[in-house]
Amino acid sequence: MWLLGLPWALALLVTVASSSPSMDPPDPASIFADLSPAELRAVRTFLMGRPELGLSPSQGGGLAKNSLFLVELLPPKKRSALRFLEDGGARPRREARAIIFFGAQAEPNITELAVGPLPHPGSYRVLGFKGGRAVPFSARPMTRLEYELLYEALVAAMAPLEPLLHEATGFGFQNCSKRCLTFSDIAPRGLGPGERRTWLVIQRFVEGFFLHPTGLEVLLDHQDPDPRRWAVQQLWYNGRYFSSVQELAKSHARRTLRLARLPEPPARQLFSSYEPRGRFASGTPTEVHGAKVCEPQGRRYRLRGNRLEYGGWSLAFRLRSSAGLQLFDVRFNGERVAYELSVQEAIAFYGGHSPAAMQTKYMDAGWAMGASSYELARGVDCPETATFLDAFHLLDADGPVRFRHALCVFELPTGVPLRRHFDSDFQGGFHFYAGLEGRALVLRTTSTVYNYDYIWDFLLYPNGVLEAKVHATGYIHATFYTPQGRRYGSRVHSHLLGNIHTHLVHYKVDLDVAGSGNSFETMDIRFENISNPWSAGARVVQPWLHREPRRREREAALPLGRPAPRYHLAVTRRHENEPSSSSIYTQNDPWEPPVTFESFIRDNETIEDQDLVAWVTVGFLHVPHAEDIPNTATPGNAVGFFLRPFNFFNEDPSVASRAPVIVRPLDPPTCSNLEIQRWTPPSPGACIHPEPFTYNGTY
C-alpha cells in the first residue's frame, strides 16, 4: 500500500519452450516468449557466418578472439507491443539480443547487437547504451575459458607453496586426485576502471567447499588477454600479507610462519554437508513424509505457451539469461494493470578483515543469475503437483543448453483464510460463519550464483494482490577466522568467519493503471489534536490521511539513507533507452558502468499523467551465525513487496470465487440445525502423489 498511490497490483513471469508444433494461431503472449532452441541456433549460425565479425567458437583457443557470449530475446518496444495487443496492429518484429566479445583487435571491446527478424535472421544492428557509452573489454563477465586459464595459472603459481599447503591442510594443487584445493573468486576485480585482478580464496574441495577456506588468499592479475603475462601480485595467509609466493614459501621454510593447521575432514557427517546428525528432543517422527500439497480435482490454472492464467489473472512470462524472471502484459479480469514486472539486480556487500572479504561486493546480474536456473527438485523445491518448465540458455556456449525443470508453477494453500468472519450472537451461538480458503498461484525459479541460492517467487492472490518475494539460502560467503575478523561477523566454526553483509534486490514495476498515463502520490498518517465537537472542554487526538502528489522524479526518489543514492522506491518516466537499472557489466566495472541508475532521475522530469516505472529495492542485513551451518535457512531470510488494488474495484474481486463456505443456523439460538452453503464438492477426495522422488541435475 505504501508503494504507490496508484490503485493496483502486479503479476509474474516464467519460461517455457514448446516442443511440438501447433496449428493454432500463436497466443499474443508469444511476442514476449524466450527464444526457442531453434531460434538460438539460427542467431548463432547467422552471426558465425558474418565474415566482418570474425567470430570464433566460445570454447577453446585463447581470450584474444571475437566470440559470441550471450543470445536472448530482445523484447519489442512497448508502443509496438501495445499496438499489437490492443489495437490489432502488426505483430512486432521478433529480434534477439546478442553480446559479442571483440578481443581480437587493437582496442578490444564488448558490443551488443539486435539480430532479426526471427526465426530467420538476415540482418543486425548495434545496440547502444544511454549516453552512448562504450563497454570496455575489461568489464566483460567471466567465461568458462577464462576460469580454466585462471585455474591453470593459479596451480602453476602455487607450486612453491605445495609443502605449506600439504602440512597445513592435507590438500594440494599438484597431482591431488581426491584431495584437491579449489578457489572462489571475488569481485569487483580491482580498484579502478580497466583493472582485472582478482582475489582468490583458496579452499579444500570437499562437499560444501565454500565453508572450507584454508587461510590463504591470492591476488592474481589476469588483465592481459595472454595468460602468460598473468601474475600473482600479493598474498594473505592467516592474517599476514606477503608480496610474493616466494616470500611466503621462505617464511614457511624458515619456520617463522604461524601455520593454520586444519583438522582432517571426516568421511561422514561433515559439518558442511546435509547428512542428518543429532536428534530432536521431542522424539516426534521425521523419517516419514510430512504434509503435502495436492490437487484432488485437477489444476485450477492454465498454461498456454508462456501465457499463465489463474482466476482473474492473465500474464506472459519469460526467464532472461541475464537477470531472471520478467513478466509482461499483466491483466486482471481482462484489464491490463502492468506492462512489465521484472527482477533487475541482486547485490551483496560484505565487510571483513581479510582482503577477499573487504573487497567482496557481488552484483549477481554480472554472473548471469538468470542462467543459473538449475533443476528444481519435485517435492522439495516445488510441490509434487507443480508444473515444471525447462529453460534454454545460450550463454558462454557454442549452442543452446537445456536447463531441465528450471521453473515451476503451482497452487499453494496459504494456511490462513483469505478472509473469514464468525458472527457471534453473544449468547453461546452465532448468526453465521463465512470463510474463503487462502490460496495463491506461485511462479518460482532459483538462481544458484555459486554459494548463494536465491528462490524467486511471484504469488498471485484471488483478491487482486500480487506478491514479489525472494528467499536467500545456500552457503554463506565465509572467510578464514582470525581474531581481528570478529569485528566483521561471527565465528561460525573452528576456522570459519561468517562475514557481515547486506542483501539488496532491485525490481522494475511498469504499472499501467487504467491506461499508461499515471501519476504518483504518497499517503502518510498524521495526527491532530482538536476540540471534541460533541463534548465541550474535551479534546480528541486522532489520525488523518495526508496525501502528497509527487510531481517530479526527484520528489519520487525515496532514499533508504543518505548520502548514497540508493532508493527503496524511485518513480521515473518510462523511456525505451532505460530498460534496466543495472547490467551484466557493472560487476567488473562498477566505477564507470554503462548503466547508471542515478541518470534516470538526474533530469528530474515531470511524472504527472505520464507512463511511469516504479523501481523497488528490498533487502536485509545478514549477520551470519552458527545456525547458518550448513546453509542459511529460508525463515527470516526472505524479503519482497506487495502490489495491492486501492479503490480500483467496487469490492474485493475474490467474491467471484466459488470456494467460500457459509454456515447459518436454521434454529437460532439453539444452532442445532445448520445450513451449510458451498459451491465446491463436499469432500476434496483423496490427496496423494504416488510417484517416487526422482532428480536428474544435468543441463
From TrEMBL:
The keyword Metal-binding applies. Residues 292-561, 566-654 form the Copper amine oxidase catalytic domain. GO terms for cellular component: plasma membrane. The active site is at D364, Y452. Pfam families: Cu_amine_oxid (PF01179), Cu_amine_oxidN2 (PF02727), Cu_amine_oxidN3 (PF02728). Keywords: Copper, Metal-binding, Oxidoreductase, Signal, TPQ. SUPFAM superfamilies: Amine oxidase catalytic domain, Amine oxidase N-terminal region. Residues 1-19 form the signal peptide. Contains 1 topaquinone per subunit. It comes from the Eukaryota. Its EC number is 1.4.3.-. The modification 2',4',5'-topaquinone is found at Y452. GO terms for biological process: amine metabolic process; response to antibiotic. PROSITE patterns: COPPER_AMINE_OXID_1, COPPER_AMINE_OXID_2. Topaquinone (TPQ) is generated by copper-dependent autoxidation of a specific tyrosyl residue. One of its GO terms (molecular function) is diamine oxidase activity. Residues 39-122 form the Copper amine oxidase N2-terminal domain. The keyword Oxidoreductase applies. InterPro entries: Cu_Am_Ox_Cu-bd, Cu_Am_ox_TPQ-bd, Cu_amine_oxidase, Cu_amine_oxidase_C, Cu_amine_oxidase_C_sf, Cu_amine_oxidase_N-reg, Cu_amine_oxidase_N2, Cu_amine_oxidase_N3. Residues 140-240 form the Copper amine oxidase N3-terminal domain. Its cofactor is Cu cation. Belongs to the copper/topaquinone oxidase family. This is Amine oxidase. It comes from Dasyornis broadbenti. The lineage of its organism: Eukaryota, Metazoa, Chordata, Craniata, Vertebrata.
